[in-house]
Specification:
- The chain is of the alpha+beta class.
- The chain is about 50% helix and about 15% strand.
- It has helices at about 1-5, 10-35, 35-45, 60-65, 75-100, 105-130, 210-214; strands at about 45-50, 150, 155, 165-170, 175-180, 190, 195-200, 205-210.
- α2 (about 10-35) packs antiparallel against α5.
Length: about 210
């Protein structure tokens, strides 16, 4: 078994599992000396995703929100991702060698393991958020974003057609959300600064910052 796990075609998956043990070891040692890797990672990442963003919105932000990265502690999410990726990779290689007596091409195994991992995390992460919610001690309610300044990060937003924007709060935490113009005559392009005025069901309505000054 050890020979199989350390085989060349399993190197990437072995590294993933090894990294999980390193993370858990650091967290365990940290508890002894009063240091929490879990809290440190959450502070270092310093971003939040609007919980209402879904995968159909497109972009990296919607994918990360779909994977519950905004609702689980970063350490828990990393352990879940790396361990799942390693286990699924091992499994694919094990059954391929068992059936075909040889391993499949690395790119097929890695891509297959990654796809399975992504959907597995979506399936498992949502229930986990109820047991292990992300620490919100330094976060502010997104309902208090009214009147705050956000910046369009990608794409183009028009009336009822939102795109991604980022807002930085007083704790220097970045919040990624979807924003669309309040007016039918406005269009937000990448780099536009907008003032958030109202939260819709799935996205924010905003007005261009310069317009707000008039």
């Amino acid at each position: 078994m050890m020979e199989f796990m350390l085989a060349d075609f399993n190197l990437l998956f072995s590294c993933a599992i090894f990294f999980v043990f390193i993370l858990l070891l650091i967290e365990g040692l940290g508890l002894i000396i009063g240091f929490s890797l879990m809290n440190a990672l959450d502070q270092l990442t310093g971003f939040d995703l609007d919980a209402d963003i879904d995968l159909t919105a497109g972009g990296l932000t919607s994918l990360l929100g779909w994977l519950c990265l905004n609702r689980l502690p970063m350490l828990i999410w990393l352990v879940l991702f790396l361990s799942s990726f390693g286990i699924f990779g091992y499994s694919i290689n094990y059954f391929s060698t068992l059936i075909f007596e040889t391993s499949l091409a690395s790119y097929l195994v890695v891509s297959s393991a990654l796809i399975i991992t992504v959907y597995f995390i979506k399936l498992v992460a949502a229930p986990l958020t109820k047991i292990l919610p992300k620490n919100e001690s330094s976060a502010i309610s997104n309902h208090s974003f009214v009147g705050k300044l956000a910046k369009i990060t990608q794409g183009k937003a028009s009336f009822q057609n939102p795109t991604e924007a980022v807002l930085q709060d007083e704790y220097h935490q970045k919040h990624y959300l979807l924003v669309a113009p309040q007016s039918k005559d406005e269009i937000f392009i990448e780099g536009t600064e907008v003032v958030l005025v109202e939260k819709n069901e799935n996205y924010w309505l905003g007005i261009a910052f310069n317009q707000n000054l008039k």
